[in-house]
Amino acid sequence: MLSTTKRPLEGVRVIEVGQLLAGPFAGCILAYFGAEVIKVEPPGNGDPIRNWRVLENGTSLWWRSIARNKKSVTIDLRQDEGRALAKQLMENANVVIENFRPGTMEKWGLGPEEMKKTNPELVYARISGYGQNGPYSSKPGFASVCEAISGFRYVTGHPGEAPVRSNLSIGDTIAGIHAALGVVMALFAQKNGNAEGGQVVDVALYESMYNLLEAVIPEYSGAGVVREPSGTTVTGIVPTNTYRCSDGKFVVIGGNGDSIFKRLMETAGYPEMANDPGLEHNAGRVEREPEIDAALAQWCSTLPSTEVIRLLEENRVPVGPIYNVRDIVEDPHFNARGLFEQVEIDGKPLKIPAIMPKLADTPGRTEWPGGELGAHNEEVFSELLSLSEADLAKLRGKGVIN
Question: Which domains occur in the chain, in start order?
Answer without folding.
Answer: 13-212+337-397 (3.40.50.10540), 240-244+250-321 (3.30.1540.10)
